[in-house]
Design goal:
Strands 1-2 form a two-stranded parallel ribbon. Helix 2 packs across helix 5 and helix 3 runs antiparallel to helix 4. The longest helix is centred in the middle third of the chain and has 54 residues. It has about 210 residues and is mainly alpha-helical. It contains 5 helices and 2 strands. It has a domain of about 140 residues: 2-Layer Sandwich (Protein Binding, DinI Protein, Chain A), CATH 3.30.910.
């Protein structure tokens, strides 16, 4: 009797679960349609991204040569001042020192301003590329009726056919093949001394310190 009673309670419990489950309508869950994209690869390998990097390298190289020439000239002036220290009258020597310091400050200011302009131009160009790529990703997601887009970095395993990165790159190459860097045509190597230096961009020239002669 005790054993039969135990079985009856179990059956009653199972029936109550079935009834309660039938009473509450099940919620419909849309199956996920997933696509994966590597945004960093797009911003590295697309034609427009490579072109922007090339423009940046060319401008930086040209600008670095200009700055180096100015630095070399200032070092020659510094050497001459050192040699004239005990020859010139104090007033004349001090006047030349002031002129040297003004030229150095102007060059330092020009380096800071141009570095900032180059970095801003690079950021603006890459932002335009990224925004266009995101729009293309949205278009592909709509075409595939995807309801979930994952970045490549967040994925540990993927089935074939989920990664749309190459498709995005192909469409981006057609839609936005070129973005021109908007920076000053010539380096700004003159002007009044500036305040604190802005953050430097990758590969941009820096002014080596040239201490004024004492």
């Amino acid at each position: 009797m005790p054993r039969r009673r135990h079985l009856g309670l179990a059956a009653a419990l199972a029936l109550s679960i079935l009834v309660s489950g039938a009473a509450a309508p099940a919620q419909t869950v849309t199956p996920p349609v997933i696509i994966i994209v590597d945004v960093q690869q797009i911003l590295r390998d697309s034609l427009v991204a490579r072109n922007i990097q090339s423009q940046m390298s060319q401008r930086t190289e040209r600008y670095t040569k200009e700055v180096t020439q100015q630095e070399d000239e200032l070092r020659r002036v510094q050497d001459q001042l050192e040699k004239q220290r005990n020859v010139l009258a104090p007033e004349a020597f001090n006047a030349k020192m002031r002129d040297f310091q003004q030229r150095y400050d102007a060059l330092d200011h020009g380096v800071q301003v141009t570095r900032q302009a180059l970095q801003q131009a690079y950021n603006d160009a890459m932002t335009k590329v990224e925004n266009t790529a995101l729009q293309i990703i949205a278009d592909i997601a709509a075409e595939k009726k995807a309801n979930l887009v994952l970045t490549k970095a967040a994925v540990l395993f993927e089935a074939p056919g989920l990664d749309i990165t190459q498709d995005v790159i192909r469409r981006l190459d057609v839609k936005l093949p070129l973005v021109t860097l908007s920076v000053p045509a010539e380096p700004n190597l003159s002007g009044p001394p500036a305040g604190p230096a802005p953050p430097s961009g990758p590969g941009l020239p820096s002014l080596a310190p040239i201490p004024a002669p004492r």
